[in-house]
Amino acid sequence: MIITIDGPAGAGKSTVARALARRLGFRYLDTGAMYRAVALAGLRRGIDWNDAQALAELAQQVRIEWDGQRVLLDGQDVTEAVRSSEVTRVTRYAADNPQVRAHLAQLQRALADGHDVVTEGRDQGTVVFPDAACKFFLTASPEERARRRAADLAAQGEPVDLQRVREAIDQRDREDATRPVGALVRAPDAIEVATDGRSVEEVVGYLAALVESAARRKPA
Q1: Number of domains observed in the structure of the chain
Q2: Strands 71-73 and 76-77, how do they pair?
Q3: Which residue range(s) make up the domain with 205?
Q4: Nearest alpha carbon to residue 200 among 2, 20, 24
Q5: Strand partners for 20
Q6: Main-chain dihedrals φ then ψ at residue 117, nearest 5 degrees
Q7: CATH number for the domain harbouring residue 101
Q8: What is the pLDDT of residues 99-152, one digit of tens each?
């Protein structure tokens, strides 16, 4: 069974998806970390971000792996490194590149093949797994999402200005909505879930109940 969780930055996708996968005994796939890994590789190699072909070739050259908890770039654990503000600022170049998206979508399908998976990102229910058994779209207010992102950055030891974080969230929303491929949109058959004021346990419990109900309805 494939369960997709899409939504904007800061809506709680990663935390909820990881916890839901653990509760159900499914594999967890963080697709956003894969785009961030490409961006990190570009930073390390000093790539020209305006050279779309060079970035596409780089994505093909590097080895990106996801083991359920960590993202590895050419064998190196970069789980924390890909969450830095520096990487966040340039991830859009990887996310907006059609060839990069096609390559990573293929890799995501290969990672999920033959497994029960909870996968989260921006286009999982619309592009990568359009036939997923359960689709969810998580949302939260811009203020709540900015607060969560600021808390994440503070935990990583980065200086935090909440207003700047909010502005970055707003900019990210505009980029996600207007992306030429893989734009952030709710799949018509996805269930929208607002996470404001709800604990992770509450959200996970709600989603788990919906998944279990869908599993019972599935033909034998």
Answers
A1: 1
A2: antiparallel
A3: 2-210
A4: 20
A5: none
A6: -135, 140
A7: 3.40.50.300
A8: 999 999 999 999 999 999 999 999 999 999 999 999 999 999 989 998 888 888
